[in-house]
What does this fold into?
Amino acid sequence: SAREAERAQAQTAASPLEVENLAEIIEGFKMVLVVRNDLKMGKGKIAAQCSHATLGLFKKLQHRAPKSLRRWERCGQVKVVVKIESEEDMLVLQGRAKSLNLPTHITIDAGRTQIAPNSRTVMAILGPADMVDDVTGGLKLL
It folds into this structure.
């Protein structure tokens, strides 16, 4: 029917856009959240700190790197949570990320509940998956 022909034509016309989106998805942006395991935070505390880190990095990138943020959003906002055993190791990782020009955000806790004030709890890193893996690939999932 004429309606089916129109649908087929509309799908064909949309194909180049889908290919463009796939090309960007294949490039694959992701966020990795690096959680301090040595602080022995409870599950709820970890969830809250990961949320703070995600939002902190998101806000930073809204103005400084909006294209990267949009690409990450189009990739499904992939987030992976890994653990690290010390603040020192986290700061070394942050230095490695910065050397690759990957944006980071470290959440610093106010210390009102489970842990000492001004503790660095979670670091968020965002960028092309292979570059982020160069920084965090050696860490175990939380």
